[in-house]
Amino acid sequence: MEYSFLARGHENITSHHKSTFEITTDKTLTLKGDCIIGVCSNTILNDLPSTLKEKIKTDNTKIELILETDNAHDSIIGFGCSKLTLNHPTDMVCRKSDFTCNRTLMINSNKAARDLDKDLINDLKKGCNLKVTIKI
């Protein structure tokens, strides 16, 4: 099962955060948002298909998140959890920890913002389009 959506890079992407990365529908980004790697997302957590959400809300479901620009890509592995609500109106956060809140898409991720492919981040700093694919 997979689902794809689009977001965009932004000149203020720094990708320095050590435990999370985030994709948001917000159109702007300050330098304080060091976990944000994508803005202007055309999808929120509530938009995910119900069958996908059910799988994500199941403990230990393996989730692969694929991030792609025209010139680069990266793949992140994390896990679902029965504590996830998947109902934040603007943000999707992938976490290396097992912390959950309504912004969390997956936990126990193998990568945070600072671990992502540098070519991908450089594309995003230029404002490139970002394709995000969630695979279960």
From TrEMBL:
Taken from the record, one Pfam family name reads DUF371
InterPro entries recorded for this chain? Answer: DUF371, Mth639-like_dom_sf
Specify the protein name.
DUF371 domain-containing protein
Naturally occurring in which organism (per UniProt)? Methanosphaera stadtmanae
